[in-house]
Amino acid sequence: MKIFAITLNTFKEAVRDKILYTILIFALFMIGGSTLLAALSIGQEAKIIQDLGLSCISLFGTLIAIFLGIGLVHKEIEKRTLYALLSKPLPRDQFILGKYLGLSLVLLTNVCVMGLGLFFLARIYLASWPWHLLLALAFIFLELLVITALATLFSSFTTPTLSAIFTLSIFFIGHLSSDLKLFAARFMGPTSRFLIDLLYYLLPNLRHFHLEASLIHGLALNGIVLFQTICYALSYGIALLLLAMVIFSRRDLK
Amino acid sequence: MDSPAITANDLSKDFRVGFTLRRKRVLYGLNLEVKRGEIFGYLGPNGAGKTTTIKLLMGLIFPTSGEISLLGGKVGDSQVKSRIGFVPENPYFYDHLTGWEFMQYCGHLLGMDRAARDAQIWKLLDRLGIRDAAHTRLRKYSKGMVQRIGLAQALLNHPELVILDEPMSGLDPIGRKEIRDLILSLKEEGKTVFFSSHILPDAEMICDRVGILVDGRLKEVGVLEEMLEAKIESIEVTVREADLELLARLPLSLSSPPLQRGGKVLLSVPNEESLQETLSCLKEEGVRIVSIVPQRETLEEYFLKEVSSSSE
Amino acid sequence: MARRLGYSDRRRWILLLCLCWVGAWVIAPDLDQRKLSRSREGSSYLIPAQQLRPLLLGYDLIAADLFWLETIQYLGRHLLGDQKFTDLYPRLFRVVSLDPYFVDAYRLGGIFLAYSAGQVDEAIRLLKRGAAFNPDRWEPAHDLGILYYLCKKDYPQALYWLQRADRLPGRPDYVPRFVARLYASTGHTQTAIEMWIGIYDQTNLSWVKDIARRELGKLGVHLPPETEG
Questions:
Q1: Domain carrying residue A54
Q2: CB burial string B75-89: b at 16+ within 10 A, e below
């Protein structure tokens, strides 16, 4: 299928990008380096290594998603590779979808590489195989899918710089939104509260994807909550992609 | 009866420019028809709107008003696209892919099956003389090679219509000749070729018809010979073994004094009627006539005239 | 001009480079020393967790870990130094605010506060928070019980907390025995007897049976001697 041709090409192109390797190696160093930090604790090595490891994977995954995502479409326009592509019988929305899937594949690979490193490292400090890490990684990947969808959306109609700014801003707000909502509920008037609530529902609440607290401490997980979180990620991501497809289909490619 | 290859009706395009996003018109009510099987040269100075027109044809940008139809179908229709080949101006393709990988990618997007793809790719690489570079990465290709692989990807799907944006820009004379030859061979295969250029001699050599676009307006469209025939400036007659004194005594109606060049003399006759008179006069005197060449306005001169008249 | 950089010039550049480097090496420790002596640890400089959370963008756990490590350093410094722990509670509180399920922080924090810093009330406050956020963990409840017993001599409270701990999974084996003793010392003799009988019956360990027997004896209940089979 044509979308997969684009997916594969995007994957191949990203995999040859040096930025990717730089970030990946740095992340692996940090995960390994967490052992040094953990040595300063009194018996909390396992916790610190897992915390730091998962945070690294989440943070660096986000960086990769943003850096690669913002140039996703714009690079093709700037280099004019897009013109020859779109002259083929390929609908524009399939192009965007293919690019998104390609980038998601890159992220999956990265999360797996970093995750495996963490998985084996944590095993050294724990009595058994840390299967719970896999679940945490799965949800981190879900978060990355949403962030990538955001970056793809912005990439479909603005420059890389603006895309980066918008995506990062939403990334920040996405982590703050629950706090903002609480703050507004307690301290602000009805209009401000309404606006903040609007913002809360419009923008993604990225805290939902951070299960580390529950998983690392071995707390029970609510199956319904997990299922809802997955649905949330999928529906939000799909909405963003659909918007990207619509915008890109109507756009003049100057 | 087959529909025309390209039809544009009252096609206009505005862009929004500047901070205030004010509208700027770049194409004014373009009416154009390109017939099947012809080579059409879309000519104009830089900034005239040639690339804009082509982008409109390819569905890369959308018209502000007017209609376009390609091969009887709508722009952007997948069926239509599968019958068109396009090479953008100064093409650039994926650095990290080899020529072969790139052609495979294009073939995938065209929905070609493996066998057909492979066969056609080799055939085209051979035809365009880049077979040896098939497994070299595109970033190592020279400009001429990039142009050629651009053509290869455009011809992959046996298109009926080939659209080229400035196909000869940046090429050396040999490269330009190769492209000219290719375009002619495409015509022999029954394809329609629409290309834009600001290099007039090339157009002059191969086009059946041309359109001249200046400042977003199509000034003239027509068969090249017809456009220029009306503009014969003079006829140059070259004679031998005549001395200027003798010629001065003859009742010749010349548009300018005779010119001596080596052993020959050049006479400039204003039109065909005067030519007959002059020729019979010269024959009577026993002057040897070496050649008779009508001095047409070249396309370039015509072009410059059109451009300067529009800027007045 | 570039050609003028001959051999001797290069040596001069290298020498200059080395001098700068050595200079930096020499100054650095002194700089560290001065900064250290000027550093203030007052709690007025500790930003509370509430204000920090927005900046952490969801990476609360990592921050908690880092603050925990910092707290350990703080503790060590003052244990070996002036034995004053004015900031210990705020620091611990910050850690557990960011990671309320960090049971080790509550436990060790409680121990340090009560036994190193002599701040028993703060220790109790911390552990109560730990119990509230981790109702399924035996550790905070257990530690509270011990604290009330040893430091506050408040046996009813000790009983309450150890009872809670007794009901939670994974609790140490001695907890029921402790609870039984506390029932006895708080005047709930009947309950104490029942508990000890239960302990006697449920255990296979002879030394535990001996303890149960002894305690029951103190309460006026004399069990028949052990028979084989």
A1: 2-167+240-250
A2: bbeeebbbbbbbbbb
